[in-house]
Amino acid sequence: MADPGGEQVAVRIDFGDGTPPEDAALTSDRSFDAIHYYAAHGTYTVRATAIDDDGATSAPRELTIVAADLAGVVYRDFNDNGRFDTGADEPFGGVPVYLDLDNDGTPDAGEPQAVTDATGNYAFPLLDPGTYVLRTVIIHVKRPRSVR
Fold it and tell me: CA-to-CA distance for 27 and 108, rounded, in angstroms?
């Protein structure tokens, strides 16, 4: 990664949990990868800042993440292959999901519940160790059909 002046650029990531910021490994396509393990569940603001070799820094880019015991994505599987395919499938926001603690197929009072965000993400933080049954509340969506 290089800045407009041609200098080498590094990316420093503050994971928002009080641990020291880390320098990210840059890839050949000018992106970076970073892995971080949070000691506690919760919502964190992650900040990535570009730094050139003179010490000049960019404005940080921020991303809010949830460190949770159980997280995932609900999506419309348009090609019915059971996995998310970019370009073929799309995230499904607004879907109720719940942990069916009594395995009766119905969301009950006291069972953890969430609704997927606009990008289909959900999270259940602060779960006790154990096995959980995750269910969605079925939302009927009509698929467009061609008329001949």
Answer: 47
pLDDT score recorded for residue 99: 95
Residue-wise pLDDT tens digits, 17-56: 999 999 886 777 778 878 888 888 788 999 999 888 788 8
- For the chain, list the domains and their CATH numbers: 9-67 (2.60.40), 69-148 (no CATH)
- Taken in order 21, 26, 30, 31, the sign of the CA dihedral is negative
Confidence of residue 147 (pLDDT cuts 50, 70, 90): very low
